Amino acid sequence: MKFSTEELIDGIQSGNKRLIAKAITLVESKKAEHRVQAEDLLKKIMPLTGNSVRVGVTGVPGAGKSTFIENFGRLVIAQGKKVAVLAIDPSSAINKGSILGDKTRMEELAKEENAFIRPSPSSGFLGGVANTTFETMMICEAAGYDYILIETVGVGQSEVLVADITDVFLFLKIIGGGDELQGIKRGIMEMVDLIFINKVDQDNLQKAKNTRLELKRALDFIPPKEKGWKIPVLLGSALHNEGLQDVYDKIFEFIDLKKKTGRFDEIRVQQAEKRFEYWVQEYILSLMKKSNTVEEAYHMHKKNASAMVSNPSTEAKLFVEKFLSNENKD
């Protein structure tokens, strides 16, 4: 059944999870007619957005991201808040669909009336997020969700892009999981706002404390991302609900600091600008492919690049210059 934009907006505002999901599906769609309605929907809900705390949760596979989000989400709900979870699953290379299905791994949170969980395939999009994650956040904010938790695919060199759409970037670590080197990579450490060493128990408590000390030393060599904020390195166990209240308190403290310094609104503006730049590139490429002449040139230069006739960057430059010269003639 097709819903009008007004019906979807009414459903979003009333907290109808079915219609919220329909709105997100519309925004994720690549069909031309769906894109037109999605743009109209997003434009109309903009006045209802911007009131949530956006938290990115990243870490290597096995760090316990889903367990952390489930129990942290329940803790947030216990504080009288509403929580939306955008779980970005790695995509199948065959059908582009989600592989892991995070909703099935957060059964208890899914039962909560004030929780909304949306697994989305990354569809090959780098950065640990899906290409419409930002727009999906807007829908969840319009629906009145106070906290939006984004679970990324995993941590890696491209995963830091999740920091471009969130207010807090939380990095989960585990002891003895082979991610010690990953944990102190400068690229990741420059982006994090909070570190939580997960799966800590009596057997590995001393190792966890040693890791915390190493991380703090590493952080001392990195210029602070936010003036006046020393990145906390917390210990705990998401499975046993240990240390989660500390995380909640530190997130509140961090957001409060950014609002007092004016950085909160400043960063939100920068994030919107980056999304603008992303969609400019997407729409330009889409427009290019609508022209038969341009599409032929696109495939010719692409073939030259794949056959290594010349450097791929050179072929890309030649193609873009050809497209722009054709546009100028028109």
Notes on the protein architecture:
The chain has 13 helices and 7 strands. It has 330 residues and is of the alpha/beta class. Strands 3-2-4-1-5-6-7 form a 7-stranded parallel beta sheet, sandwiched between helices. Helix 9 links the parallel strand 6 and strand 7. The longest helix is centred in the C-terminal third of the chain and has 28 residues, at 263-290. It is globular, with a radius of gyration of 22 Å. It starts with a helix and ends with a helix.
Return the structural class. Answer: alpha/beta
Strand order of the largest sheet: 3-2-4-1-5-6-7
Total number of β-strand segments? 7
Proportion in β-strands = 5-15%
The radius of gyration is: 22 Å
Order of SSEs: HHHEHEHEHEEHHEHEHHHH
Helicity, as a percent range:
40-55%
The residue-averaged pLDDT reads 84
- Helical stretch count? 13
Q: Compute the separation of the termini in Å.
A: 42 Å
Oligomer: single chain
Given the C-alpha coordinates, what overall shape results? Answer: globular
How does the major sheet shape up? 7 strands, parallel
The poorly predicted ranges are 90-102, 122-130
